[in-house]
Structure formats: C-alpha cells, structure tokens
Amino acid sequence: MGAEVLGLFGLSSVFALIGLVFAGWMAWRIVEKAGLPGWAGLGAILLTLTGVGTIVPLILLWVFAFMRWPRDEMAGTPAGASSPGRPGSPTALPPPPAALADRRPWRLSGLSASGPVALSMDGTQPAYLLTGAATQQGNELSVPDPTVGQPHARLFVSGGRLGLEDLGTPGGTRIDGARLLPEHGPRDISAARVIHVGTVELTLSRA
Question: CA 200 to CA 111: how far, in whole Å?
Fold first, then answer.
C-alpha cells in the first residue's frame, strides 16, 4: 500500500512539473508577443507558487488590462517615423517621372515608279496630305506614282503618335497587309512597319 501511494505521489509530481514548465513557456510567449520581455511572464508564473499566489493573477490582470503596451506606442507612431530603439518603417518611394514624349519625326521611305521616296513628318503640321501629284503646299507629301491618288490619304501627328486615314482612292491603302477603308476613319499606325499606298511600299520609322 505504501509503495502504491509513493508511486501515485511520484506520478503526480511529474505531471505537476510538466504543467508548470508548459505554463511558464506559454506565459513567456504571450508576454513576449505583447512586446515585453519574456521573463516577465515567467516571473508571474513563479510568483503563483508563493504564499501570495492567490492574489497575483488578479494583480497581473489589472496591470495588463490598463497598462500601455509597447504595441500601442508603435501604433501611435506616424508612418515613416522611428520609435526609440526600433527601426522606422521605410518611407514610400516617389513615383517615377513621367516619360517624355518622343519628338523624333516620323519617316516614310520606299521606291515608287519615279524613284526613291523619302517623306518626313515632324509634327509642325497637324495633318499631312499624301498625294501622287507634285506638292503645292507645306502640308503635302508627294509619292509620284500612277497608283497613288491625288490626294490619296491623310496623315496625323499628335502626342508623338502617327495616324493614317484613307481617302477612298482606287489604289487603296494597306497597313502591314491589312486593307484600310475610308469608313474605318483615322487609324493609329505608330506601331506599324509597312504601309502600302497603291502599289508603293513605304517603310515607317523614326529619325
């Protein structure tokens, strides 16, 4: 009988020790997550083993409920400012500067029945008239070829981009092989590579 009592007492002591270690570990973790040193929680658990252990939990509850936690101080710190002993949050980077508009002139180059063709559109005119006849005005661009209308198409330069509108001539207009009709209206050809006016092939580039 005495051996059974001693065995039960020893088993209970082991459970009590395991429970104490587990409670101390949890108290350490809880207090550490709150921003306080972990030993404060461990000390609270050890105090419960003393003669005043019954009142210690109430005191701790009162302190933890009304004290100012380190996390509260961090929450009240303005964004980008550093609290004492803690690195500040990195400030946001300013937005990148807006890209400048490409002001290089547009160029159309190719070969017509009358020889090489080199056209330039620098944006000094809001629109350019593409024609198979000789130029008479500053906004006209000549492509001397019998398959090119008089006029044939209209080119627009706006905001660094280039637009093209077919004016309904029999020779027709194509953008990278796709037919452009008058009812399509102006089309952005800034990303195009090859323009056909009549049978003349023109390569689009920027100077």
Answer: 7
